[in-house]
């Protein structure tokens, strides 16, 4: 098998037959297969099976019951099942013209690139298929932001946001990928130095169906970008900062309503501790939850530690003010910085520690390895 074509789909039934027809025509001279990794809730799987029965090239279907990780995880799953190391990813809505497949394959066959990207912004490429001027501006702004945050890794990439590319799966360390949305190419490029080549293409309008773009997808992208560029520790800090703002807002609102400031502070603290835990579960340690203890055990550890930390931190802050005669603001800042590091270490190594199974390394070695992995993963040096 020379080429495995991976098509992640979600409710694309009207496009399947035309996609296979055009892919078949484009790959007449290539020994290729098509793998649909489908998360649909409509009759897309049935349509794929019907079309596969009469297709001129092998067509396989993986219908997933869980859509965890979205399009990105679908691509990773398809790459793992592929017969060929050359894996081409293409959307199922025909905005990516299948007629470009031979061009991407020929460029890849030269052997000097690990990934060949179909770019809307390379010379001759266009993004006219985007729904309107607003989507065009959003796409260009997101691309500019992404390239600015990864100036080294993406210096030769004009379109890191594209979903149309051909990659040598041997060059990608699948174990390091954390697919959490639809920008799987960005995930690959940001985590490892890959040799890149680009081919311009015209991004077409949808053949049928509705676009999956949404505000939620945009938030997923921003989360993915932040995690890739800064790692878990920075996401942890962002959530902590948001919690501090919410904490102040609650105290202000309750005291303005006549609630005693001590009671207001307690309510605000407990509310933000719970809120921060939910955000950490969703955005920071989501990839560690399955191997860790139950959610109630994780919550109990986090809740108890944060309350104990507050009981220790506040007296230390008061001691700094009274003994060293520094301002309360500076003392608060110093204790919060130390508390941030301690909180991160505790959550990484205790709250989300994997359940014990079999022989494990020594506690000291595990501490160093886990702390290094969580504090430095992933990011760009």
Strand proportion, as a percent range, falls in: 5-15%
Side-by-side strand order of the widest sheet:
3-2-1-4-6-5-7
In round numbers, the mean pLDDT is 80
> How does CATH name the architecture of the largest domain?
Alpha-Beta Complex
**How far is the first residue's CA from the last residue's CA?**
37 Å
Largest sheet: 7 strands, mixed
What is the domain tally? Answer: 2
- Give the helices and strands as they follow along the chain: EHEHEHEHEHEHEHHHHH
Rg on CA atoms, Å: 25 Å
Write the layout of secondary structure elements.
Blueprint: E1 3-9, H1 13-26, E2 32-38, H2 44-54, E3 59-63, H3 70-81, E4 86-89, H4 101-109, E5 115-119, H5 133-149, E6 165-168, H6 184-191, E7 196-200, H7 215-256, H8 261-284, H9 295-324, H10 328-351, H11 363-376
Parallel strand pairs: 1-2, 1-4, 2-3, 5-7
Antiparallel strand pairs: 4-6, 5-6
Helix pairs in contact: 1-2, 6-7, 7-8, 8-9, 9-10
Explain this structure to me?
It is a single chain. With 381 residues, the protein is α/β, with parallel strands linked by helices. It folds into two domains: 3-211, Spore Coat Polysaccharide Biosynthesis Protein SpsA, Chain A (Alpha-Beta Complex), CATH 3.90.550; 218-376, no CATH class. Helix content is 54%, strand content 10%. Strands 3-2-1-4-6-5-7 form a seven-stranded mixed β-sheet, with helices on both faces. Helix 6 (184-191) crosses helix 7 (215-256), helix 7 runs antiparallel to helix 8 (261-284) and helix 8 crosses helix 9. The chain is elongated and about 80 Å long.
């Amino acid at each position: 098998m020379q080429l495995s074509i991976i098509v992640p789909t979600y409710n694309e039934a009207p496009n399947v037959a035309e996609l296979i027809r055009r892919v078949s025509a484009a790959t007449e001279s290539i020994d290729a297969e098509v793998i649909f990794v489908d998360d649909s809730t409509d009759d897309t799987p049935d349509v794929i099976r019907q079309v596969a029965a009469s297709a001129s090239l092998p067509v396989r279907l993986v219908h997933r019951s869980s859509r965890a990780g979205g399009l990105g995880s679908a691509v990773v799953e398809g790459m793992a099942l592929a017969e060929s190391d050359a894996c081409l990813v293409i959307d199922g809505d025909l905005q990516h013209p299948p007629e470009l497949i031979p061009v991407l394959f020929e460029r890849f066959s030269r052997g000097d690139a690990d990934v060949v990207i179909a770019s809307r912004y390379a010379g001759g490429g266009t993004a006219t298929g985007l729904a309107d001027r607003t989507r065009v501006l959003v796409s260009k702004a997101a691309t500019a932001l992404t390239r600015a945050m990864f100036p080294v890794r993406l210096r030769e990439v004009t379109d890191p946001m594209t979903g149309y590319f051909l990659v040598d799966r041997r060059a990608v360390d699948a174990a390091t990928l954390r697919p959490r949305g639809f920008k799987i190419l960005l995930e690959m490029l940001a985590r490892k130095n890959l040799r890149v080549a680009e081919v311009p293409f015209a991004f077409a309008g949808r053949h049928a169906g509705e676009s999956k773009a949404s505000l939620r997808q945009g938030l997923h992208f921003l989360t993915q970008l932040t995690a890739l560029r800064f790692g878990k520790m920075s996401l942890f800090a962002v959530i902590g900062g948001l919690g501090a703002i919410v904490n102040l807002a609650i105290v202000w609102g309750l005291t303005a309503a006549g609630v005693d400031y001590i009671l207001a502070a307690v309510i605000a603290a407990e509310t933000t501790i719970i809120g921060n835990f939910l955000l950490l579960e969703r955005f920071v340690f989501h990839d560690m939850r399955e191997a860790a203890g139950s959610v109630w055990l994780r919550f109990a550890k986090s809740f108890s530690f944060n309350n104990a930390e507050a009981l220790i931190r506040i007296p230390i802050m008061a001691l700094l003010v009274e003994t060293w005669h520094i301002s309360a603001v500076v003392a608060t800042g110093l204790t919060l910085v130390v508390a941030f590091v301690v909180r991160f270490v505790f959550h990484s190594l205790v709250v989300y520690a994997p359940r014990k199974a079999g022989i494990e390394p020594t506690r000291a070695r595990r501490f160093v390895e886990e702390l290094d992995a969580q504090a430095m993963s992933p990011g760009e040096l």
